[in-house]
Amino acid sequence: MKISRNWNKFWIGLALGIFLPVVFFVTIYLIGYSKISFVEFVKFTFMMKMLPKIISLCVVPNLAVFYFFLNREFWYATRGIILATILSTLSIFLFIIL
Q1: What's the Cα-to-Cα distance from 51 to each of 27, 31, 40, 48, 92, rounded to whole Å?
Q2: Residues 28-49: pLDDT tens digits?
Q3: pTM score, whole prediction
Q4: Contact at 8 Å (CB) between 91 and 21?
């Protein structure tokens, strides 16, 4: 499968790096906790100090996208994925501190 060089943009990597963890977070909610509201799910995970762990799991798909872009030498998109992952890591640290 041939991927166009148009995908080699920083903002595409950043958008994918932010979008994928959100999709996986919602998927975790829908699969395991759909009987309660989404807001209650977030409050519950925050109170039980599970939110950083769940966010960490949600960032794992970024690794696959990172290697996908890396193998095709899409350096700018790869940088976007890295920045999104760093931002996710910072949010995890903030949740741990709170």
Answers
A1: 14, 16, 12, 8, 8
A2: 999 999 999 999 999 999 889 8
A3: 0.84
A4: no
Crossing angle (nearest 10°) for helices 51-59 and 61-71: 20
The residues, any chain, with a CB within 8 Å of residue 44's CB and separated by 6 or more, are 33, 36, 50
Domain range enclosing 90: 5-49+58-97
Average pLDDT, the chain: 91
Lookup: tokens for 18:
């932010």
Q: Give the integer Cα–Cα distance in Å for 51 and 16.
A: 21
Domain total of the chain? 1
